[in-house]
Design brief:
- This protein is 8% helix and 45% strand.
- With 164 residues, the chain is mostly beta strands.
Amino acid sequence: MSDSLTTHTLTAETVTPSGFDPFGVVLTPMEDGTPFTAEEAVLDVSNGIPRFYLMRLDDKPAEFVRVTRHLETTQTLMAVGDVEWTIAVAAPGIEEPGLDDLRAFRIPPRTAITMRKGTWHAGPFFADPSMDFVNLELDDTNVADHHNHRLDDAYGVRVVIDAE
């Protein structure tokens, strides 16, 4: 990333259902046989062929210049293994998110998130050299439903997440 950019720092907070509500839902382990919940009802992969896969990501330090959204599907992410990771988000319904619209969350081990349709996001980010994630979206999400907003072009910034 260019050194001529100003650094904008986001402080990550540990994800909670209420804190993440504008962006989606937080899913944690529940007993088998637990009745269906409103949180689970956010999931919507009805506009195409669902794709459930293990996604390997390499070298993802917590900084970015671009956010992405998917208008046709929710997206569910969870790290494989007992590891924490970080994501930045901005609420759906914003055409071009500003710096004040961005929030960062630490996602604890054994926790998944489902982002609402249209939720802007950057990440997942992590400290390890590589990590695997369970990902549920549509089969063509990254081709036909990948809308970007460049924060470097719009605001001259690189966003860095402080996970402490």
